[in-house]
Task: inverse folding
């Protein structure tokens, strides 16, 4: 089967940088995605990594190490509106390429 | 505007009743999915469909049924056999499975069964 681990909650202050980690176990790894979900809302896609390294999209960056089965989402210049849940999701041939989601990390940004 | 619609936003039912949740997309996507989300949990896959008239069970399909008669529509029926149906249900679509990276989600339907 597949499994993902990510912290349940992270807190930070406005303007700071925060890193949300995700470790996974799967067979036939294909890629790791990150989604953001505000309370009561729909998840929205943030980023995708299939190869090792850092992908940057504005204030958000995502990193992948396939050898360590590990990735992280980096959020810079935090804003209050970044308070949300963040999910990592792994895609693999063992999972028929359907994303399997972690339990999510609740990010709380304080003023 | 392209997107995914789910209706209704909130749904209340009595125990023992079947209920059907609507999901429509105009993104011309082949693949569609249903997820269930409980408080403090990730998204768990109920069913998915790669093409019209074909669908596959996900991790928690028991007590649910789906149909895919049109590319745009993928309704989910929560049957009375589902032991704990109260949850937030999310529908999603993507261009395909392998090779595609992004799922687009609808706004969700919050089902309460009493």
Result:
């Amino acid at each position: 089967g597949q499994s993902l681990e990510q912290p349940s909650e992270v807190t930070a202050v406005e303007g700071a940088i925060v890193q949300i980690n995700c470790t996974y176990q799967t067979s036939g790894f294909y890629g790791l995605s990150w989604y953001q979900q505000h309370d009561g809302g729909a998840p929205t896609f943030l980023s995708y990594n299939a190869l090792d390294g850092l992908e940057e999209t504005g204030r958000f960056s995502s990193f992948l190490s396939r050898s360590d089965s590990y990735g992280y989402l980096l959020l810079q210049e935090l804003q209050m509106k970044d308070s949300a849940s963040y999910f990592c999701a792994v895609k693999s041939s063992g999972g028929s390429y359907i994303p399997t989601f972690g339990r999510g990390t609740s990010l709380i940004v304080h003023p | 505007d392209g997107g995914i619609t789910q209706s209704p936003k909130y749904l209340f039912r009595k125990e023992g009743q079947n209920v059907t949740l609507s999901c429509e997309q105009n993104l011309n996507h082949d693949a569609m999915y249903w997820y269930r989300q409980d408080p403090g949990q990730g998204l768990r896959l109920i069913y998915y469909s790669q093409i019209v008239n074909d669908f596959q069970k996900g991790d928690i399909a028991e007590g649910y049924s789906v149909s895919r008669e049109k590319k745009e529509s993928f309704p989910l029926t929560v049957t009375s056999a589902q032991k704990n149906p109260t949850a937030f249900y999310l529908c999603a679509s993507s261009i395909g499975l392998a090779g595609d990276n992004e799922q687009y989600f609808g706004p969700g339907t919050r089902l309460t069964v009493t």
Observations:
- Chain A has a mean pLDDT of 95.
